[in-house]
Amino acid sequence: MFGNDYILINDNGIDLLRNRFVYQHFDYSAIISYKVKDGYLLQNRLIIMLFSFLIMIVGLVLFVLQLPIYKDFFDFEIQTRSTKGLALILFFPPLMMIFSVILMWLSFIRSKILQIYTDLKIYNIRIKEIEKSGEIEDMIKFLDIKVIKRQA
Prior knowledge:
Blueprint: E1 2-3, E2 7-10, E3 13-18, E4 21-26, E5 31-40, H1 45-65, H2 67-73, H3 81-106, E6 110-118, E7 122-126, H4 128-132, H5 136-151
Antiparallel strand pairs: 1-2, 2-3, 3-4, 5-6, 6-7
Helix pairs in contact: 1-3
């Protein structure tokens, strides 16, 4: 009934998906409760932010250390094989900085999260695609009926 690349919700229960294959199934009898809340798209966003910050620092240091080489690189003609390797080395720090900016940007994207509480664990599943399709209210009503029936 409801689903995206990570979750499938139907009458049989809730299936967690990986590469469109079910890797974990929850019957509604195993669910204690659930909650839909706002969260971030990435789960370990602080680690990713720290990693992107470190990549940015390394890229800036390499860029500053190679500034004299940049001047010499654009002064002579590129004809030998070694200069192609030199070009790769010179363009690597800016690429590192661009990559770190993309990672930092991804860590700030917000999304709706479905938290499923079971006896053993709390599962956080992104439901951004369900929210975009406008089916989130229908999904909440469906889950209310299924989970409350189990608890009654």
